[in-house]
Amino acid sequence: MKIMFNTASPTAARDRTPRVRITELYAGYPGRPVLHGLSADIPASATTALIGPNGSGKSTLLGVMAGVLEPTSGELRSDGNGPPAFVPQRGAVGDALPLTVRQTVEMGRWGERGPWRRLTRRDRATVEAAMERLGISGLATRQLGELSGGQRQRALIAQGLAQESDLLLLDEPTTGLDPEARDRIAALLGELVADGVTVVQATHDLEAARGADACLLLRDGHLVGQGSPERLLTPSTLAQVWQPA
Ligand code: ADP
């Protein structure tokens, strides 16, 4: 089964060079192949939602795009500046670490500065701007572990933003959040896209996927469809993907 439509909605970047072009990608873990010959385009300055059942390979695909997982074969062509910013799943971030919000966001500058070098004035300005953008300046001195789920997620997105990358990869950014926090994050991501950032998010949340410009639908490590949410996320397609294998 393969469902292919034009990649993006009319308002999105249909005719532009994709930000990332994935060709015949195979990837996985020792003794556990996960992605099987996946080819897809990630449109630039748009939001792409990766959707599919648990275990379908969404996080693995993000890991390859983030450069933390080496593909077994295939190609990933990136048409942008510098490495992507990766916001992993909340559970993957040690909530017990004694870090303030500001320290968390400052870690976004480590890629350029290294953890042991003092931050420059420009680094600090970037960190403050990222916190302001995410509405967490007032929380700068609070410990990450004290925050609500939505606040913590905004701190992690601010860390990604502080990297000043034009490609932001998010793994389940709204899982476990209340509707208000979800809406806030969706609105913030929309603003970043309007500024030219390319956003890719793995999500279980069909509402979030419906708000994306493009969707990649995965099942068992195969891409079974790509296109605009209006075309792709129909009841029959979803039923095919979520039916028992
Ligand atoms: P999704 O994000 O869609 O839930 P994942 O990419 O996390 O899917 O997982 C795809 C498959 O890879 C699953 O079967 C999962 O058990 C397996 N997997 C994920 N991470 C690892 C790992 N570190 N080592 C071995 N297998 C893994």
From TrEMBL:
Sample GO molecular function, one term: ATP binding
Domain ABC transporter: 20-245
Pfam family, one: ABC_tran
InterPro entries noted in UniProt: AAA+_ATPase, ABC_transporter-like_ATP-bd, ABC_transporter-like_CS, AztA-like, Metal_Ion_Import_ABC, P-loop_NTPase
UniProt KW keywords: ATP-binding, Nucleotide-binding, Transport
Family: Belongs to the ABC transporter superfamily.
Protein name according to UniProt: Zinc ABC transporter ATP-binding protein AztA
Species the sequence originates in: Streptomyces luomodiensis
